[in-house]
Design a protein that fits this description.
- This protein is mostly helical.
- It has one domain.
- 76% of the residues lie in helices and 0% in strands.
- The protein has nine helices and no strands.
- α3 packs antiparallel against α4, α4 crosses α8 and α7 packs across α8.
- The longest helix has 29 residues.
- It is elongated.
Length: 200
């Protein structure tokens, strides 16, 4: 059954139950089409999904017909936002992204970080400092990139910027966790309070 058939069934709906089923079926097919369309340009996949899914969420009412779909749509939205924030952050800090990828790989393999000069305490702190040490300036640059990508409302752009700051806080917390476990004598620079001030 394609989208046109769904629309035809919608016009022939004779009961509330049937009406609801047809609307849900139509939305499912639209989301399937949306994902296929977004996949034609993988680089912008998350951006296309964020803008369109957010548009749908804002315009669906809160009736029982849509209750389950709201859950699915919000999860779809959140998943794409998380991946987009990761892209924005790693685009700004490619050396950090590659470095931490290797750090996490070594940790998963139960290898000692201190025994490798590139990943010892001094090197780790240096990478953290160069990444999180001037966040105000870098956040401005990342926010400009977000505004360039998103073509919809200013409200969505502002929401993405706030989510970016949340993502950075979460990333720093992960760095803190790694430092506490693998570099117990290290005093990270910048510290958590300084990072939070930079993100205000």
């Amino acid at each position: 059954m394609n989208m046109i058939e769904s629309m035809n069934n919608y016009s022939r709906a004779t009961s509330e139950e049937t009406f609801g089923e047809i609307l849900i079926d139509f939305l499912d097919k639209f989301l399937q089409w949306l994902e296929e369309m977004a996949n034609t340009k993988p680089k912008y996949y998350n951006i296309v999904m964020i803008e369109n899914v957010e548009y749908i969420i804002q315009r669906l009412d809160k009736s029982n017909i849509w209750k389950q779909k709201h859950v699915k749509l919000n999860q779809l939205y959140d998943d794409n936002v998380e991946k987009y924030m990761k892209y924005i952050f790693e685009y700004q800090f490619p050396k950090y992204a590659e470095y931490m990828k290797e750090v996490r790989k070594l940790i998963e393999g139960n290898e000692s970080l201190e025994e490798k000069s590139k990943y010892n305490e001094k090197a780790f702190n240096s990478m953290v400092s160069s990444t999180f040490g001037n966040l105000a300036k870098n956040c401005k640059s990342m926010n400009e990139r977000i505004k360039k990508h998103l073509k919809s409302s200013d409200a969505l752009k502002n929401d993405m910027y706030n989510k970016l700051k949340d993502y950075i806080k979460k990333e720093y917390e992960d760095v803190e966790s790694i430092a506490e476990k693998h570099y117990p004598n290290l005093s990270l620079s910048p510290g958590k309070e300084e990072v939070e001030r930079e993100l205000e």
